[in-house]
Specification:
The chain is of the alpha/beta class. The protein has six helices and five strands. It has helices at residues 13-25, 41-53, 69-74, 94-101, 117-129, 133-161, and strands at residues 2-7, 29-34, 56-64, 81-86, 110-111. The protein starts with a strand and ends with a helix.
């Protein structure tokens, strides 16, 4: 069980660390790389080839501004690619969001919210849960815990105002 996470710049690391932590908490191996689609395209292509040949199941990409990284990765693999648009420019991530969601037909990139690396990790886990019962079971347990917490918060609000 393995996921690759690629970011375009080391300044993005703080925004992808939550995804790394979530994936590891599920027992998933995580390969993390900093490979710019513009500045390190040969290294990026080599890493994508590696992912295509090993047991990587999903690739999460995080990029800001022009955000070419997710599309470049998706163009070189049929593994599921999840794009995380990152804030950091004058447009506060909207530029990256628009770049990632506007992929041409046949080269899809699943896209989460701006700075949404946690949901990228959960989406990767849901994809992997189709093949790994242990992940699926843990996801379902976590959803039950979320529901219980939400219902408890509701009970507290009701008790306060009734």
């Amino acid at each position: 069980m393995q996921v690759a996470i690629i970011m375009g710049s080391t300044s993005d690391l703080g925004k992808v660390e939550p995804a790394i932590e979530i994936l590891k908490s599920y027992g998933v191996r995580v390969k993390v790389r900093c490979l710019s689609a513009h500045r390190a395209h040969l290294g990026l292509s080599d890493f994508i080839k590696e992912c295509n040949e090993d047991d990587t199941e999903v690739i999460i990409t995080a990029a800001g501004m022009a955000a070419a990284l997710p599309g470049v990765v998706a163009s070189q693999t049929v593994l599921p690619v999840i794009g995380v648009p990152l804030s950091g420019s004058v447009l506060d991530g909207m530029d990256a969001l628009m770049s990632i969601v506007q992929m041409p037909s046949g080269i899809p990139v699943a896209t989460v919210a701006i700075n949404g690396s946690k949901n990228a990790a959960y989406l990767a886990l849901q994809i992997m849960g189709n093949s790994h019962e242990s992940i699926r079971t843990k996801l379902l347990e976590e959803r039950k815990q979320m529901e219980a917490s939400s219902l408890e918060a509701n009970r507290q609000v009701m008790a306060k105002y009734e």
